[in-house]
Amino acid sequence: MIMAVVLSVAIMVGFQFYFGATNAPPESTKTSKIAPSTPVAPSHPSTPGTTAGGPTVLPGSPAAVNAPALPGQSTPADAAMQRSKALGAAKRVRIQSPRLTGSISLTGARFDDLTLNGYRETIKPGSPNIKLLHPIGTTNPYYANFGWVAAANSSVQAPPVNANWSANRDVLSPEIPVTLRWTSPEGVIFKMTIKLDKNYMFSVTQRVENNSSKPLTFYPYGQIARTGTPETTGFYILHEGLLGVFDGVLEETTYDEVQDARVIKRKSTGGWIGITDKYWLTALIPDQKTATNSEFRDDRQKEIDNYRVNFLEGASTVVAGGVAETTNRLFAGAKEAQLITAYRDELNISRFDLAIDWGWFEFLTKPIF
Q1: Which of 28, 47, 115, 296 is the most buried (most CB within 10 A)?
Q2: For residues 278 and 257, what is the distance between their CA atoms, to the nearest angstrom?
Q3: Among residues 320, 75, 94, which one has the least CA distance to residue 187?
């Protein structure tokens, strides 16, 4: 078997080396392997809180092409502050579990402070634990958030990107969930119940309580934002960058590709979307039965790349006195093979095991592993 694998690899590498070198197109004719598809989701302006108009659609149906846009990212800071100072700029809910510590900012309900307790930056004893997520104001902010955007011409405001939420408790742990609350000026109540399992999976249930006298329409969304291009290994069979599964098909996009395309739009029912490093992953996991419009994008500001992956669900119309709910998930942690596969099976997440790059010989490397 070893001989067969070695010979197979030699043939493939030799073929790529010889024919790739002799038949490579001129630089002027080369194109990205992933090109933007026909637009199926809204454009997302970089200005926080900006929205674009769109029609009301039935609950659970895909968002229309001109549905409201998601809140944009914050403009990169001219001078980064210390992490401790950035964390202290907002009230927080502390995260305490055996595998994760950190906090959730009550400004914007952002998951922006996460440390992996079981992993360190180097093999030296006492080396700092891996800090996966970083708050706005630091050198390279990296965070996730969920929310709602209102339909066009809505008379009720959805929670803005920097909304100040309240919390029913100060600590989130695997045994005890936390509920965040924000009330619009019109008296409509938005709630977000956050649960954490014993590993790396957050469950986020968003709820709207319509206390007004007329029906209201909102679009649920989730997004991950990362400022700056991280240093990557550059190993040609190891993907580091943006990725997702759309209608059962894995799509991997490098940072260079999204820089060139600016925005890549996809439509899917089920699946997931995220950003991966060699060992770590942050991923948004919508309800697997819900149709969503998703994006990979780069909103470049001040010569700094601002990467974003997001999904937008179809509209939910809440009758007067009624309630609407949606539950989605956030994975933020280490790409442990058995754990990733268990999530795939237990939560029915389409092809979640492909968050780990098994290489060209997946049929062989995966069972051997």
Answers
A1: 296
A2: 18
A3: 320
Residues 56 and 217: their CA atoms lie apart, in Å, by 7
CA distances for 137 relative to 102, 206, 222, angstroms: 16, 27, 21
Cα 360 from Cα 9, distance rounded (Å): 10
Instruction: Render 243-295 in DSSP notation, one character per residue.
Output: EEEETTEEEEE-HHHHHHHSEEEEEEES-EEEEE-SSEEEEEE--TTSEEEEE
Phi, psi of 363 (to 5 degrees): -60, -20
In sign, the C-alpha dihedral spanning 148, 151, 152, 157 is negative
Q: What is the pLDDT of residue 278?
A: 95
Ordered alpha helix ranges (H), the chain: 2-23, 83-87, 255-261, 337-346, 362-368
Cα-Cα end-to-end distance for the chain: 15
Instruction: Please give the model's pTM, rounded to 2 decimal places.
Output: 0.81
The alpha carbon of residue 256 and the mean position of all alpha carbons in its chain are separated, in whole angstroms, by: 18
3-state secondary structure of 7: helix
Residues in the chain: 369
Whole-number Å distance between alpha carbons of 294 and 226 = 16
Which residue positions in the chain have pLDDT lower than 50? 22-66
For residues 193, 111, 48, 280, the Cα torsion angle rounded to the nearest 10 degrees is: -130
Query: Which of 306, 304, 311, 314 is CA-nearest to residue 274?
Result: 311
Tokens matching residue 206: 């968003």
Check residue 190 and give its pLDDT. 98
Output the CA–CA distances (angstroms, integers) from residue 356 to 45, 89, 308, 352, in the order listed.
32, 35, 20, 8
Burial bucket for residue 6 (CB in 10 Å: 0-12, 13-18, 19+): exposed
> Per-residue b/e over 356-367, b at no fewer than 16 CB within 10 Å?
bbeeeeeeeeee
Bridge partners, 243 (sequence order): 252, 274
pLDDT at 264: 97
